[in-house]
Amino acid sequence: MADINEMNTAPQQHRRNFLRTSLAASLATLGATGAGNALAELTSTDGASRLAADGTPRRTVIIDCDPGQDDAIAILFALGANDQIDLKALTTVGGNVPLELTERNARIVRDWAGKTNSLPVYAGCPKPLMRDLITAANVHGRTGLDGVTLHEPRAPLAPQHAVTYLIDTLRAAKPGSVTLVAIGPLTNVATALTAAPEGAKALREIVVMGGAWFERGNITPSAEFNIFVDPEAASIVLGAGVPITVIPRDVCVKAPITPARVAPFRALKNRCGPIVADILAAEVAYQKGRRGVESAPMYDPCTIGYLIDPTMFGGRRVNVAVETTGQLTLGETVVDWTGRTKRAVNATWITDVDEDRFYDTLLSRIARLP
């Protein structure tokens, strides 16, 4: 196993060469033809059985995140669905805010859910593979969790580096037994798959919140934030040859947060319901101040909704590549809808959601929390 500390302290030029080699290998994988080019439509009816779980009643899940308001709700959503999701750990990465805040916020969220001593949080990569970190503190607030009062976390981080944890866990796991939910920049995931590619066999699926096609970008005209922050990492993950489901902006905007949808969470009599309401209201307030509309996209929690009930979603099997060099299109997710490139299908790209069922599901799971 590659030593993470050594990787972090290696000379910059060596690091860049190492990552360029890895990226070249990943792009070669994207160009392989072994998986065929069938572009099977997946709808919320016809495709439901193919999107659905394989009969295993409870998924083993790790959430790689950068909390972030929507990350916080996704974590609570997963914890409220513990009959279906066995959440083993949170791994954190620099993204919405710097790493020292994302790991702190993850520990605060587990406190809210009463999981202070049972859900480990690991700190990972503080910056992208080859670039400086760009944050979204203007959206999520200076702390990353705008809209709620924060306390000091009640327990420390787990001692391992997040990438070391991912490598060791995947190496030890049975084939196809771990679902990785990646709702921040993909730096930790790409580093783990590059340093120990044999761990990929343990992955049942990677569910990624990232990318945009029909709705275009939210950080540049063509790029979605998570992919734009570390496009090289995203390209490596999409080229890793593992089952990937992408929840892009295309579907997140189809389940908008509105004041009417915030109200039921505020009416819950537990601790977490009003916290979720405050976060959702802060997201709506940001959009009202920025665009004059009282609605906001529902981003990261859609990944958990997909795990709980994939029949709420529809999508399509396609090839997805990431632009890593474009001057105007850096971080764009290029979706080959017609097979024109002849590149192998490498992801399920989700396009549709039953928004009312989604919010009913989210509310019912948040209601189960303390």
UniProtKB/TrEMBL annotation:
Listed name of the protein: Nucleoside hydrolase
One protein family per Pfam: IU_nuc_hydro
Organism of derivation: Pandoraea pneumonica
Ranges of residues in domain Inosine/uridine-preferring nucleoside hydrolase: 61-360
The keyword Cytoplasm is assigned to this record: no
InterPro entries: I/U_nuclsd_hydro_CS, Inosine/uridine_hydrolase_dom, IUNH, Ribo_hydro-like, TAT_signal
Keyword field: Glycosidase, Hydrolase, Signal
Cellular component, GO, one term: cytosol
Record keyword Signal present: yes
Organism lineage: Bacteria, Pseudomonadati, Pseudomonadota, Betaproteobacteria, Burkholderiales
Domain of life: Bacteria
